Amino acid sequence: MNFIDLTSDSEDENVGTSSKELKTIDSDDSEIEIINISSIKPSHGKSKSSTRLALKPASLHIGTGSDSEVEIEVVQMTPSKPRGRNHNVSHIRTPGPNSSGSSSSSTTKSPTLRDSTNHPGQPVSLPSTHVKSKPGPSRPKAHSDRSLKSDERLARKLQAQDQKEYQKLIKGITTKKEGIVFRTAINADGTLEDGSPAHPDDLARFEPWKKLFETTSGTQVKRFHWIVNYELEKRFQETKTLLSDSADAADDPTKELLLFHGTGTANIDSILNGGFRIGGVGSHRVVNGTMLGFGVYLAASAATSIGYAAGANRIFACRVFPGKITGDLTYAKTPPKTKDPLDEPYQTYSATFGPGIVYVVRYACLVLPCYVSW
Predict the structure, then answer these.
(1) Same domain, 186 and 122
(2) Is pTM, for the whole model, over 0.70?
């Protein structure tokens, strides 16, 4: 049987003896009987106006035959202005979520009590209740909503990070003035360093160098290294365009030469990153002499350049735009007057030297380096 055990108490009022009178609670959910509702009497020496209804904190037990219970905290507010405590608290136990009875909820409907002892025929309502239930399964919808909001916040954060990195990348590209921006190495068998097949465009770029190196050196090429330096590429193309557009500035405005340059291994990275430096021009010192004039020394024969590689197994393979070529050694031995190739009638000195033709290009901006190894 469902039952309620309520015991009255008050700090400033006399409480009468408990009666065993049973009353039925008006409730839509269950039939509940009241045991021990005590009459409340005014304190001696106090006026009737100070009389107030008070209930002692009590336990409300609703038995259902289930082992699972839910503890409900009931807050009893007094009808009149309190002088002591603001409220009384009752603890109510109701069937738990696994019970076959009515399900628990965050609020409990207040049943109506009729106390014929103190206020005959007047209903006394239990206050609204606050439920403090034992831990149970989470509500799926609330959990789903929280997860969705968390995912949205994470997505926005990742999007902001991606946008920031993208802007940084774009800024780096647009403001980059020098340095290597791309490089690849193609093996003699047409594969890349990781063994995958090279792109057809890269193979087409490598094939002329492979043929030229092997026919002029008698050595099998092992690998062609293609280097793209943004500043050097830009400088080379701009100078080539200026000379090509100027009348009589180039013997053949469309002609490029494929030439080799030999140097020690220690100089390779410096040349790839900053281009060639001409000794005796500006602040650059002369290293190997000026027998054939001032400029970058290059050869049509790989064998000639290998002799200057200082024992290394690589030499530079260079695209060269010679401009106007002269055979006047006296002219070649005079340093360039300015840094602008258009200020001179000739940009390159050429002569037969050793097994082939040697070119001395007087302006570094007319030479674009890559290199081959064997």
Answers:
(1) no
(2) no
